Amino acid sequence: MTTGNDSKQRGFWNSRFGFILAASGSAVGLGNIWKFPYIVGENGGGAFVLIYILCTIAVGLPIMLAEFTIGRKTNLNPVGAFQTLKPNSYWVGIGYMGVLAGFFILSFYGVVGGWTLAYVFKSFTQAISNFASPQEAGQFFDSFIANTWESLFYHALFMGVCVGIVLRGVHSGIERACEILMPTLVIFLILLMFRSLTLPGAMEGVEFYLKPDFSKIGPQTILIALGQAFFSLSLGMGCMLTYGSYLPEDENLTSATVYVVIFDTMIALLVGMVIFPAVFAMGLEPAEGPSLVFSVLPAVFVGIPFGNFISIVFFILLAIAAITSGISLLEVVSAYFIDQRGWSRKKAVVITSTIIFVFGIPSALSFGVLSDAKLFGMNFFDHIDNIASNYLLPLGGMLTAIFVGWVWGTKSAEEEIEKHETIFHWGHIWGFLIRYISPVAVLLVFLAKFFP
Ligand code: PFF
Fold first, then answer.
1. Residue 399, domain extent
2. Second label for 306, Cα 20 to 30 Å away, from 96, 177, 349, 352?
């Protein structure tokens, strides 16, 4: 059953600013703060940053506009949207895949989100403020994530916070939360950046981060940059489509897209400017993802003035970023049940979040009691992350680009985009990118994965 026009259950964004902040809130998350610095560190610093920016503009930006356009055209969740534009076809599969990806991603995202909440509390109680070395901080982190009840408690707490916000609906919940949280994030990050940059030895980190060393760039690096662009911009699972579905008709989609992409990229770049100077100033190496943020940084904070305060601020930021992305993941899954099944928002949110939480339990235990339960060398957490992030998202993005470029047609899409703007100035370039560049680029990701 389609009740797409039931705006009481669905809701609308109240302001243009609120929508842009909410979409940015979805984009900016653990992907920017936890993953981006780590993969920059692993892939040659400045040169990787340039390639990432290129992927974001050439592939991410056109797909985001495509998602917003489908969303606003149909005012529906991903399943309802594809069903409406191409009834009784297999294209609706993109929508189902998106809802499934949202389900999978939130199940492990909630676990890491729980760790961020835990580290906020642990900063306050100074439990993570006395490490003698990064190794000690690492051991503390490892034993924390191995603890069954603590992991589950914080995992549940994170899900509970997301439920509390999404239950309140699009305007008074998601939009209002993001309006406060996103600007706070930017202000804190800028403050932290100054703190990092004024540490002795910080310039070495800046140089690593900004000076391109193209000798470290290969085909694989480009593919990693592309995958990161998808995850970071919340693309490929109909998340931006769902957020676009709450837009009133007079919204200028192209400028909203540009703002969200710039905001997401700016935050990632800012985070790099916080982390690399600090890591280099401490004489440390940019290490692996989870250890970089959760174990190396607390050790970094110990060594600097106002370290405990900075630690509190940093983990609050990380938690904020994770929550505003978590709510977008929950919204996609809930919107499906609200629109397609006619459920009330409350029923949809409570039931889906409970199932996602239960499905996430093996992920939460993957670093403790279930750490030996491995298949092909990966634990449950890694498998779910791998299936969702490395397969479902790029596949969804590629199919969305093909759908808009070749099936629904760029002409119909441009008509929708031009509802507000008299002329879509970038129409030709966008049409070219969405028909050729985006799908081919993603295809290359898959070829590289299957034929490394
Ligand atoms: N973009 C989020 C991040 O960078 O952490 C993660 C994410 C959120 C991915 C929502 C996909 C999504 F639909």
1. 16-448
2. 177
